[in-house]
Amino acid sequence: MTDLTGKTALITGASKGIGLAIATALHMSGAHVILNGRNKEALLTAQKTLGTKRCSIITGDVTKPEEAEHIAKLALTASGTLDILVCNVGSGASVPPGEEDAAEWQKVFAINLWSTTNMVQACKTSLAKTSGSIICISSICGNETIPGAPVTYSAAKAALNAYVKGISRPLGKDKIRINAIAPGNILFETSVWQRKLNEDAKAVQDMLDKDVALARLGHPQEIANLAVWLASDQASFATGQIWTLDGGQTRSL
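Above: the chain's sequence. Below: its structure in token form.
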């Protein structure tokens, strides 16, 4: 197991799904984890699953620059240092392709891009002091066209991928590493794939058999395993990369 004892990690969108799985894996590796989200009750429930030892919560909306700055300051106050930032806030919920308007573009980019750029800006001074690591959760929708995926979401994740690659050079001057993970179809209790399985399990399996090399859905723990590695010194030469984890669904390089 990767040893992150003595490290502090701030995870946004950490109350469920991929964010909670990453927080749990970092905690199990010895890190002090700080869970962020907008819903205090959900964060408290997540904290109970980890235990209060080496686990703190901070409520706040990272899509707003001033709140992101406040969250970063509270995290530093709680821990005294920051080694790992996980930018997990995101949502694929949007309108069908062709029905976008200005408000929808702004909403989806705020959730899927500004949520990351705000937190990187707010935390980079602290991360520079520890030669820290940033992990951003993207999507295969940002890698190539996925039939049926919202255009707003796909564009926002493509922009996130471009941001990770572009910002890696200036961050690298301060010995900060930044990488993104682009998951495929991930199953957890409140996920869209759980809903689709409940509605038509055969249709889901038919899609997996047709489009995914491993013919199955992924699990949050599989994303978390890669995130822990990227956060650790074992990945000390990895930065500016988009790490696709999709069971072999996407075809493009």
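The chain has one domain: 8-186+218-245.
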